[in-house]
What we know:
Layout: H1 3-20, H2 40-47, H3 72-88, H4 94-116, H5 146-151, H6 160-181, H7 188-214, H8 219-248, H9 253-274, H10 285-297, H11 300-310, H12 312-317, H13 321-340, H14 357-386, H15 394-397
Helix pairs in contact: 1-3, 1-4, 6-7, 6-14, 7-8, 8-9, 8-14, 9-10, 10-13, 13-14
GO molecular function: metal ion binding; signaling receptor activity
Membrane topology: Multi-pass membrane protein
Transmembrane segments: 163-181, 193-216, 228-246, 258-277, 289-308, 320-340, 360-376
Amino acid sequence: xxxxxxxxxxxxxxxxxxxxxxxxxxxxxxxxxxxxxxxxxxxxxxxxxxxxxxxxxxxxxxxxxxxxxxxxxxxxxxxxxxxxxxxxxxxxxxxxxxxxxxxxxxxxxxxxxxxxxxxxxxxxxxxxxxxxxxxxxxxxxxxxxxxxxxxxxxxxxxxxxxxxxxxxxxxxxxxxxxxxxxxxxxxxxxxxxxxxxxxxxxxxxxxxxxxxxxxxxxxxxxxxxxxxxxxxxxxxxxxxxxxxxxxxxxxxxxxxxxxxxxxxxxxxxxxxxxxxxxxxxxxxxxxxxxxxxxxxxxxxxxxxxxxxxxxxxxxxxxxxxxxxxxxxxxxxxxxxxxxxxxxxxxxxxxxxxxxxxxxxxxxxxxxxxxxxxxxxxxxxxxxxxxxxxxxxxxxxxxx
Length: 399
């Protein structure tokens, strides 16, 4: 097939593309303003309203000038001839026109989708978004962009409560940390100790809010932020241990070092497990709760150690053992709500938007974090009141 015949086939497609892109409309007497430079001469010709005159050498069968716009076939004929000349002279790049049209169509579809998406039923979700089958309606469909995901924060759906509970908690801890760590009376060592707790809380709550915001973007993004969410939980548990062990064993370096080392190892292990791809699957919900509950309950060992060595009364009055127990109870209660999916298990379809187990879990996590903050500040105040340690004997350093 000759180059000319190839061009003829391409011209038919180009003409159709120009119509769709509104570069030429048979109802108008001129080409659009978007016409490429190679067609400017044709634009002037089509705008000319003089009577049709055959040029020298024509046999009277050719296409007339557009003074007869009622004959659409004749206009098509003239446009085809002009386009033939443009393609054969390489003045028109058909591939560039097609690429531009495709980009414009894709952008248009994306904007329409972002503006018009509606919540859907659980059964209409793709498998990678199906997590809790007790929540029937109000789910977000897969959203094509991060902008659409973050914009959905201000709409009502199954994740609205999960997003806002930890988002507000994250902002609250940022404010508390800024105020507390800016106190001029605090030493650098104390700022580092409390900073570990604040960083853990802020990262945990921030990653949780981010995950619930963007996990509907795509399966890949959902898995990534799910891992970051679980890593944030591990960081919160580690950060919570640091100030309690620091002040609880303030005058006992050896057990403090051992416990901090063990907590660090457990925290790193939890993070490694969290990075396992299958860890975020719905069927491993109980395993996830068990891993973090075990990590948190490991704090019972240093608490009992302190109570035996210092006495239960001192453990409660000096080491804020009561606040520590309350914090642990709130975390365990929240994990049980999360693992058992209560109350939606007993009221399917009734807790789709509010009062679902994950929202209750979020609220209990924030409450536990603030309870722990109160407890460790009480321990810090006691240490400031008592002052520095007296020189301990060897038995005090023994594990």
